[in-house]
Amino acid sequence: MSKEQIDFYQENGYLMIEDALSDEQLHLLQSVTQTMIEASREVSQSNDIYDLDQGHSAAEPRLTRIKLPHQQHPAFWDVLRSERITSMLKPLVGPDIRLHTSKLNTKAPGGGAAVEWHQDWAFYPHTNDDLLAVGIMLGDVEMDNGPLLVIPGSHRGPVLSHMNNGVFSGAIDPDDPAFDVSKAVALTGKAGSMSVHHVRTLHGSAPNLSNKARLLLLYECGAADAWPIAGSVSAFTGMSQTGFWQALNERTICGEQPLQPRLADVPIRMPLPPPPDSSSIFKVQQSSGARSAFA
């Protein structure tokens, strides 16, 4: 990671890195992913592993997401913890890094679901915002298959409202005066490339209108001294203190889990009241009636 790359990330809130994976890592993750997609032929409704897209069938698997891939196959965890990846993350968030969550968005061809514009920070505020999302491209990402779109510099701006109909919607209002879609940058690249965007960077993605899937492996992670305040901390609900501490340590990517949270002066809005269905970002946005910027 060069000084120019670090400065670009800090200024713009995102970064693109070509050839982030070795050929061996890329081929392994592609193979594991295809095996999991094939296995989804036996699934008829969304479950703890798969979010199914409209039109999914045994004859034609159509997924929006494979949930928590780092828990589904060790290859996803091993790649994230490899020196090749951690050496690129440490200059951005420090030596002690913890995974928040992971997902593999498998946006199906011919209309795979859009993700409305949002800031990840709205879903899971922490004690500080040294958090980011790593997007590893498992296939070529081009303009027509629904690339991730970001608004440069938006991580240094306000946290926009993600409310609709009186509930948390997981999406901003496209008419919010602080949102300027003309500034959007598409993060395209070849398989094996990696994007990074700050937790407060405004981003979204249009439907996949091409004839090939868009496979994007996402790891949301950050400084281990950023402690969760809300959002996916619900995954720990009902845990004992011992269980909570164990869960934090199990998610350590590199370094150690400190006992002292680092408190920063960051803007926080709680993602409440919850929408009717909060099982995934797609359901959050759909069930809350979030307005689409891609209509």
What this model shows, in words?
By secondary structure, the chain is α+β, with helices and mostly antiparallel strands. Helix content is 24%, strand content 22%. The protein has helices at residues 3-12, 23-39, 69-72, 74-80, 83-93, 120-123, 241-250, 281-287, and strands at residues 14-17, 50-52, 63-67, 97-107, 115-118, 131-137, 148-150, 163-164, 167-168, 185-187, 194-198, 203-205, 214-223, 252-254. The strands form 3 sheets. Strands 1, 2, 3, 4, 6, 11, 13 and 14 form an 8-stranded antiparallel β-sheet that branches. The chain is globular, with a radius of gyration of 18 Å.
Work out the number of β strands. Answer: 14
Low-confidence stretches: none
What is the CA-CA span between the terminal residues?
38 Å
Mean pLDDT score: 94
Strand proportion, as a percent range, falls in 15-25%
Order of helical and strand elements: HEHEEHHHEEHEEEEEEEEHEH
Major β-sheet annotation:
8 strands, antiparallel
Rg value: 18 Å
User: How would you sum up the global shape?
Assistant: globular
Number of helices: 8
Helix content: 10-25%
Task: Walk me through the topology.
Layout: H1 3-12, E1 14-17, H2 23-39, E2 50-52, E3 63-67, H3 69-72, H4 74-80, H5 83-93, E4 97-107, E5 115-118, H6 120-123, E6 131-137, E7 148-150, E8 163-164, E9 167-168, E10 185-187, E11 194-198, E12 203-205, E13 214-223, H7 241-250, E14 252-254, H8 281-287
Antiparallel strand pairs: 1-11, 2-3, 3-4, 4-13, 4-14, 5-12, 6-11, 6-13, 7-10, 7-12, 8-9
